[in-house]
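YM 10:42: Erythromycin esterase family protein sequence, as discussed on the call
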Amino acid sequence: MTTSIQDAAHPFTPRALTALLSPATRLLGLGEPTHGVEAFPELRNELFRHLVEHEGYRSITLESHCLAALTADAYVTDGIGTLEDAMGNGFSHGLGASPANRELLRWMRAHNEQRPPYERLRFYGFDGPLEITGPGSPRPALTALHDYLAAHLDLPWNRETLDELLGPDERWTNPAATTDPTQSVGRTPEANELRLIADDVRALLTAHAPHLTAATSPDDWWRADLHARSAAGLLRYHAGMADTTPTRVGTLMCLRDAMMADNLDAIVRREARRGPTLAFAHNRHLQKDKSRWLLPDGWGPLAGRTLEWWSAGAIIGTHLGDQYAFAATTFGTRGSDIPHPDTLEGLLSTLPAARAVLDPSCLDRKLTPRVPADHTYFALDPATTDQIDAIVFFKEI
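YM 10:58: structure's back
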């Protein structure tokens, strides 16, 4: 362990992490290297509480269904529903089963109970309406949009038109379309017509924003715009699902992160007058450089191929500049998976603290990249650590 590493690394505290960030930060991305390990969302909770109590943060957003998150937000901000409802219906990707996520909502609700609305913490999801088995139906987003607009504007289409074009939801949620593009309805004439409607709706929302905001509220308009973004992004993703070319999977990765970036941008703009936002997701979605994924066995003819796409963090970083900061987390040992000494994780494993935070600028970018024991974990690339603002290292998970 070199003197520079010793000087740059400190036992983890939230204050030690934020000391490495630009004071201009409006969006802090905290990444995790793998999903399903409670140590990472537990660290997120610890950091978020510090950010709220000492650094003016008033919102958090997770790699979860942006529309489902409205249920969780209603609970934490206004006490609507129960914690069980929020956990069961406010998350996607199985995140409602996480004890750390339960504790996050419980703490946010307790924090908000005695505070006026403008001071209350908000909860967001910034992922698209996607699940592990594939994208959802655009029906919830489109019908919510119709109901909002129809109460104030004359529309060239009605709910019956939407229902006819949408057909049964099972057509959209067919899990077979995840691997077989011929099973997707994303490029049917009906789907193409729905994409035109979604585009027109977004234009109507913008053109009539002054009237709609006055007739409802800024929050109601913001939620309508969220549904409009979701409908357009989801229909675009379904069209990608129907792509029969070899670039299909890479295109879907690009489309998903573009949706994430759009949602992050909208959240930052909404929260601009209240304070910064903490975003929590996989490192690959929040990093500032291009994301890469070597497809493992099980992907048929695509196995062994490396996909490349610009992450949501890279995209939002071009908009925000130094107002976006990225803190990556990684780990040393997990069971029998022990990093080799000449890797970044092997070097960091020589640090004495169980959890350490360090300035990546002191690291040797010529270290050997770690080869994980399984495909669920993405090691940090030593060559791109100059694009990370802080690293939090767990010696063992």
